[in-house]
Write a sequence for this structure.
C-alpha cells in the first residue's frame, strides 16, 4: 500500500486542498492531555486522600476561597503551593485584605491519615489572622444525602 | 462575501469525494465523541465528589466563637468532646459518657441517638490529640453535623 500525502491532489479527493480533520483530532487530543497534566502538576491535590462523610454542604457557586492542604506527612500547601506553618497566618491575612468583599472563606483539605497535630497549628494561625470559621473538604460517601 | 465553497451536508450523496461511496460520515463524529468521553471520565476522576463540613474556630479567649449572638440571648451550651489515640492505636472518644471513653463507632452511634431539641442551642468543642488521624476527627464532626449541631474546633491542647 502506498502512503498518500494529506495535500495530495491526485488519485483521491477531487476537491484538493489540505485535509484538516486528522490535524484537528490530534490537536484536540493534545489540548485535553495538556489540560489534565497541567491540572495535576499545578496543585498537589492528587496526593491528598480526603475523608468520606455522610453529611456536608454543597457549594454550587464558585467563590474565591483560600485553600489550605494538609498532606499525610504533615506538609502544608496554600492554594497548591508548599508553605511553612509560620507563614500561613501572614499570607492568609494578606489574601483576605486583597480579596476584600470577595473573600470566600478558608477551606482545609486535610488528608485522612494526617494527624490532628498538623492541623492544629493551621487553625491557630487562622485564629490569629481573625478567621472565625473554616470548611473542611471531604468526599461524599456513598449514600450521603446532606 | 462568497468564497465559492459550497457547504455540504454529512448526508449529501451527490458529488461524493470518497470514491463513489455515499452515506453518513461517522469518523469525525466518533473522534470528537471519544475525546469528549475521555475528557469527562478523567475530570470526574480528578475532581471526585467533594463537599464541605463547616466548623467555627475557637476564639482566642477560649470561647466557642459565638460573636453574633443576640445580646440578651442565653449562650449556647457547649459540650467538650476529645479524641485520644490509645496505646493500641485505636481512637477513643471522651466527653460523651462521663469520664469514660468510648470507641469511635459507639460515639457516632451515641451522637446519632441523642435527643437534641434545638441544634442552635448546642455547640460542640471538638479537640483531638496530635496523633489522632483527621479521618477520625472528620467522622465525629460528620456525626454532629448530621444532627445540626455547630462544631467549634479547639486549638488549645
Amino acid at each position: 500500500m502506498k502512503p498518500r500525502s494529506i495535500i495530495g491532489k491526485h488519485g483521491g479527493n477531487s476537491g484538493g486542498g489540505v485535509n484538516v480533520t486528522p490535524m484537528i483530532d490530534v490537536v484536540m487530543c493534545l489540548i485535553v492531555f495538556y489540560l489534565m497534566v497541567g491540572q495535576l502538576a499545578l496543585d498537589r491535590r492528587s496526593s491528598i486522600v480526603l475523608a468520606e462523610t455522610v453529611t456536608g454542604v454543597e457549594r454550587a457557586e464558585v467563590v474565591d476561597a483560600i485553600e489550605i492542604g494538609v498532606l499525610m506527612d504533615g506538609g502544608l500547601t496554600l492554594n497548591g503551593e508548599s508553605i511553612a506553618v509560620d507563614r500561613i497566618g501572614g499570607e492568609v491575612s494578606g489574601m483576605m485584605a486583597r480579596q476584600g468583599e470577595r473573600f470566600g472563606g478558608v477551606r482545609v483539605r486535610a488528608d485522612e491519615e494526617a494527624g490532628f497535630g498538623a492541623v492544629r497549628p493551621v487553625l491557630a494561625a487562622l485564629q490569629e489572622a481573625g478567621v472565625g470559621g473554616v470548611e473542611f473538604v471531604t468526599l461524599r460517601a456513598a449514600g450521603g444525602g446532606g | 462575501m462568497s468564497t465559492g465553497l459550497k457547504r455540504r451536508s454529512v448526508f449529501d450523496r451527490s458529488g461524493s469525494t470518497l470514491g463513489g461511496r455515499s452515506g453518513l460520515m461517522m469518523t469525525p463524529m466518533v473522534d470528537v465523541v471519544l475525546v469528549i468521553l475521555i475528557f469527562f471520565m478523567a475530570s470526574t476522576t480528578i475532581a471526585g465528589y467533594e463537599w464541605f463540613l463547616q466548623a467555627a474556630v475557637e476564639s482566642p479567649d477560649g470561647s466557642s466563637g459565638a460573636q453574633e449572638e443576640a445580646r440578651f440571648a442565653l449562650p449556647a451550651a457547649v459540650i467538650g468532646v476529645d479524641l485520644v489515640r490509645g496505646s493500641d492505636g485505636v481512637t477513643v472518644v471522651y466527653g460523651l459518657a462521663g469520664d469514660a471513653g468510648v470507641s469511635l463507632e459507639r460515639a457516632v452511634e451515641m451522637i446519632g441517638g441523642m435527643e437534641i431539641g434545638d441544634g442552635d442551642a448546642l455547640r460542640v468543642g471538638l479537640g483531638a490529640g496530635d496523633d489522632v488521624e483527621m479521618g477520625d476527627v472528620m467522622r465525629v464532626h460528620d456525626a454532629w453535623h448530621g444532627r445540626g449541631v455547630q462544631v467549634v474546633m479547639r486549638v488549645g491542647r
Q: What stands out?
A: The two ends of chain B are 76 Å apart (CA to CA).
